[in-house]
Write a structure and sequence with these properties.
This protein is mostly helical. It has one domain: ABC transporter involved in vitamin B12 uptake, BtuC, CATH 1.10.3470. Helix content is 77%, strand content 1%. It contains 14 helices and 2 strands. It has helices at residues 3-8, 11-40, 47-72, 80-95, 102-127, 132-151, 161-168, 176-194, 196-206, 208-213, 218-244, 255-265, 277-296, 301-332; strands spanning 170-171, 174-175. The protein has a two-stranded antiparallel ribbon. A hairpin with a 2-residue loop joins strand 1 and strand 2. The longest helix has 32 residues, at 301-332. Residues 1-9 have low confidence and may be disordered.
Length: 333
């Protein structure tokens, strides 16, 4: 048997090679960016600023972890920014004026709302074969309008002190909210890399028809991935309220784009089947370091937006070259 046929018969090996190349590349870029800002951005390397970066990337990391599941099966979710507002105001109302006892119920409520919206997105996409970006674009408006209608466009302030205290707490020098994001990333990594469901997620993104012919219901797999993404939004809503002590119906604008950017920069393919949670985490860190460093250098908001957009474009171009390189390496092995 030729080496080419062996490589082609080993899609799992090819995927691992591609992921390692992607994660190594984004890791090198992150280190290089950190070195640059250490040299040119005042106070970038201070312990307080490092903690600030961790806190700042928490929400995007949580959202991006959920988005990774959706993108791996070839989908996209544009509703997460609006959905985080809906989850926050409903959960915030449940906690408003209450004590610590109201927090578990509010967390469960936020998770259920997020997962339910994810189910609707996935079910409509699969049942009527509608592109997911169209369905989730509609959900974007539904969730935003529902959040504003639910509170009368008012912001909720009276949240339990124990929740807001957690938002400012640290664990061994690491912000507690960032520890939550790391825990979620670790769980997602385990599911995708060590379980049958994770292998089916990758296989569905790579070759949905082959998975279907092997007896698996690819539609169910996709719906579950959308529900996971929605549940992550529910967690992000609770973390947002813990950090800032408010629940606003206008929060989350543009969050979906940041989450998608983190996943793509982390090496995921928008056509599905390729990507990893580690890459997503590194992508979120790179975006956070970039934003923080440019801010410390005095770069304006408009200029930071331009730079971030340019980085995303470069990441997509480099990913195309990385994909070709990994294919050549697999064929040559």
């Amino acid at each position: 048997m030729s080496s080419i046929s062996v490589a082609r018969g080993n899609p799992r090996t090819n995927r691992v090679v591609s992921q390692v190349l992607g994660e190594a590349g984004i890791g090198v870029a992150l280190v290089a960016l950190g070195v640059f800002f250490l040299a040119f951005a005042p106070h970038f390397g201070t312990a307080q600023n490092i903690r600030d970066i961790m806190t700042q990337i928490t929400l995007n990391t949580i959202l991006a972890v959920g988005m990774t599941f959706i993108i791996l099966v070839g989908g996209i979710d544009l509703s997460v920014g609006s959905l985080i507002a809906l989850c926050a105001v409903v959960a915030g109302t449940a906690m408003e004026g209450g004590g610590a006892g109201s927090i578990p119920g509010a967390i469960l409520l936020s998770l259920l709302i997020g997962a339910a919206a994810g189910f609707i997105n996935g079910f409509v996409t699969e049942r009527w074969r509608v592109p997911s970006f169209i369905v989730t674009l509609g959900m974007l408006y539904v969730a935003r309008g529902a959040a504003q209608q639910y509170t009368g466009a008012a912001t909720i302030y009276s949240l339990p002190e124990s929740l807001t205290s957690f938002g400012t707490a640290t664990l061994a020098g690491v912000p507690a909210v960032f520890a939550v994001a790391l825990l979620m990333a670790a769980v997602a990594w385990f599911v995708l890399s060590r379980t049958v469901f994770g292998r089916l997620v990758y296989a569905t993104g790579n070759n949905e028809e082959a998975v279907r012919l092997s007896g698996h219901r690819t539609g169910v797999i996709k719906v579950i991935c959308f529900m996971i993404g929605g549940a992550c939004v529910g967690v992000a809503a609770i973390v947002y309220m813990a950090r800032l002590g408010v629940a606003s119906p206008i929060l989350g604008q543009g969050y979906e784009l940041n989450a998608i950017a983190a996943v793509v920069i982390g090496g995921a393919s928008l056509s599905g089947g390729r990507g990893s949670v580690i890459g997503t985490l590194l992508g979120a860190c790179l975006l956070g370091v970039l934003t923080n460093g440019l801010l410390l250098m005095g770069v304006s908001d408009f200029q930071r937006t331009i730079v971030t957009g340019a980085v995303i474009i470069v990441a997509v171009v480099l990913d195309a070259y990385r994909k070709r390189l990994s294919t050549r390496l697999s064929v040559a092995s």
